[in-house]
Design goal:
This protein has 134 residues and is an all-alpha fold. 38% of the residues lie in helices and 3% in strands. The protein has 5 helices and 2 strands. The chain has helices at residues 25-30, 33-42, 71-77, 85-101, 106-116, and strands spanning 52-53, 58-59. Strands 1-2 form a two-stranded antiparallel sheet. The longest helix has 17 residues, at 85-101.
């Protein structure tokens, strides 16, 4: 890994699980028709993904979530050059966190710390992020 911030998902966030189509038109436009239909079927009445547990801020289907729910796939969906993928993922998360929790929220501070200290105490160790504990 090179110098500079590195993207890292943080536990207890879930800002990306807010799927409200009125707020995510650019995401819908990037999806195939089949992906778009699946995406829309996942939107709950409150705009959150119906698989997202808002109490624990965790995904009930994390291991089996669709490709478009994986941050690594975002760059491909939006045709982002490989050398810009880290910055793109960080920017997407910042935008979502700011919209859901605010730019000065605890969640934003934790995310900013995690992007500087990948693998640190606030960073997710990997796939367990958003997973419901057994």
């Amino acid at each position: 890994m090179g110098a500079g911030p590195h993207w890292s998902c943080i536990s207890g966030c879930g800002a990306c699980c807010r799927l409200d189509p009125e707020q995510r038109s650019e995401a819908l436009e990037a999806l195939s028709e089949q992906q778009r239909q699946l995406y829309l079927s996942m939107v709950g009445a409150d705009g959150w993904c119906r698989h997202f547990n808002t109490g624990s801020r965790s995904c009930r289907i994390y291991a089996d979530r669709p490709e478009f729910c994986r941050v690594g796939a975002l760059a491909q969906l939006f045709a982002v050059p490989e050398d810009q993928e880290e910055a793109f993922a960080i920017g997407c998360c910042r935008q979502q966190i700011r919209e859901e929790y605010g730019g000065r929220s605890v969640v934003m501070r934790r995310f900013e710390r995690a992007t500087r200290l990948t693998g640190g105490p606030f960073a997710s160790p990997g796939p367990s992020e958003h997973q419901t504990q057994p």
